[in-house]
Design a protein that fits this description.
mainly beta, 7-stranded antiparallel beta sheet, 62% strand
Length: 220
């Protein structure tokens, strides 16, 4: 089940995806109980490797909150970010819980493609969330203030691939919005990357960048 809506202002997009627990699902989930982070980067340009380790990681198993200061590396910037991974008891007598794993960030910027004829790509603010209960999971995201992404649709579905092109039409990178992983067979768990940048050979860059990530599994 996918629900999504979007409105153009600077652009704001929202999507929710559900992973439902089937009757024949295995006892253990493929994804973690509940994690979130602001993302990471690992790419090489002109022989120089740029690595930004996973920012502000949290887990319902601890640490349950995290924060990262703004990070600037050659060709990429992540603004300040935070994450929280919480567990709530909804039925103490029967030890029933729910979880919520969420990361928030701001002022992401990718300039690495400019030397190849691409645009400067910016994201003003974003949020990604994964919530879980006994019957399944839900992942959702919101992003505001996108620049350098002309032609985005009014409604952005899960796993939407946007092509970053130079003016001649050559594709320099593919950006997957709301990149979803649902295990097969479906065990009710879900993982989502808010934005996943993958460079093409035409860019002269190898590697990838993730902005915002979360995953969770049905609660016991």
């Amino acid at each position: 089940m996918i629900k999504h809506s979007a409105r153009r202002a600077g652009v704001v997009a929202v999507v929710a995806v559900a992973g439902l627990l089937g009757a024949a699902a295995p006892a253990l989930a493929d994804n973690p109980a509940g994690v979130a982070s602001a993302g990471s980067a690992d790419f090489t340009k002109a022989g120089q490797q740029v690595v930004v380790p996973t920012l502000a990681p949290c887990s319902v198993e601890g640490p349950t909150s995290s924060a990262a200061a703004a990070v600037s590396a050659a060709g990429v910037k992540f603004g300040a970010s935070t994450s929280t991974c919480t567990t709530t008891v909804v039925d103490q007598e029967n030890e029933v819980t729910t979880t919520k794993s969420e990361a928030k960030g701001q002022l992401f910027e990718l300039s690495a493609l400019m030397s190849a004829g691409g645009a400067r790509l910016k994201v003003n603010s974003w949020t990604i969330t994964c919530t879980a209960h006994q019957a399944g999971t839900n992942a959702g995201w919101a992003v505001g203030g996108l620049t350098g992404f002309p032609g985005l649709p009014q409604q952005i579905p899960a796993n939407y691939v946007y092509q970053v092109k130079k003016t001649s039409g050559v594709v320099l990178a593919n950006v997957t919005f709301a990149e979803v992983n649902l295990p097969d067979p479906n065990d009710g768990s879900i993982a989502m990357n808010l934005m996943h940048f993958r460079f093409t050979p035409a860019s002269g860059i190898t590697g990838d960048i993730v902005v915002g990530a979360a995953a969770c599994s049905p609660t016991p």
